[in-house]
Amino acid sequence: RLHHLRSLSLGQGNFQLQDTSGAARSKADFRGRWVLLYFGFTHCPDVCPEELEKLSRAVQLLEADPALPPVQPLFITVDPERDDAAALARYLRDFHPRLVGLTGSVQQVREAAAQFRVYVSAGPRDDDGDYVVDHSVLTFLLDPDGIFRDFYGRSRTAEEVARSVRGHMDSY
């Protein structure tokens, strides 16, 4: 299975983005850690908050076992036009305390999403200039080598995600 996943070439590039403090961050900065990565946007009415709650809960479940290595939760916006560092910081404080938010230029974000084959499409603007961004709803698991190991869709519970991550850690 791992050989098949590697053949997909998901997440093999090295994105260049900025965190909520404005510091430059790349995928390489997270090597040596397990990463749960979600692409979303702060103006999302329901799906993104639900998925970030699930991701946060999965990380908490894994943290409950001190024998396991820590997992780094990571959020990359798909809406850099509205999601600057300050907006991300405000939004992400309601989730896991170690959740790192990343943004960048439209091109940087597009390239990061493309590395994971994340679909992103901004919808039409309403009279107030507001819009919704349609995007893939997946959480990706990266191992300490930065290699894509698994993904989790909306149907997976936090408990299932934590159990799967634990299994990947055990077989690493």
UniProtKB/TrEMBL annotation:
Disulfide linkage: 44-48
Signal peptide start-end: none
Q: Which residues bind Cu cation?
A: 44, 48, 135
Record-linked Gene3D superfamilies? Glutaredoxin (3.40.30.10)
Protein's UniProt keywords contain Metal-binding: yes
Domain Thioredoxin: residue ranges:
6-170
Under SUPFAM superfamilies, the record lists: Thioredoxin-like
Which GO MF terms does the UniProt record name? metal ion binding
Q: Which GO terms describe its biological process?
A: mitochondrial respiratory chain complex IV assembly
Q: Which GO terms describe its cellular component?
A: mitochondrial inner membrane
Subcellular location per the Swiss-Prot or TrEMBL entry:
Mitochondrion inner membrane
Alphabetically sorted, this entry's keywords are: Copper, Disulfide bond, Metal-binding
Question: What is this entry's stated membrane topology?
Answer: Single-pass membrane protein
- Cited InterPro entries: SCO1/SenC (IPR003782), Thioredoxin-like_sf (IPR036249), Thioredoxin_domain (IPR013766)
The text of the family note is: Belongs to the SCO1/2 family.
User: What is the protein name given in its UniProt record?
Assistant: SCO2 protein
Q: Which organism is it from?
A: Sylvia borin (Garden warbler)
Gene encoding the protein = Sco2
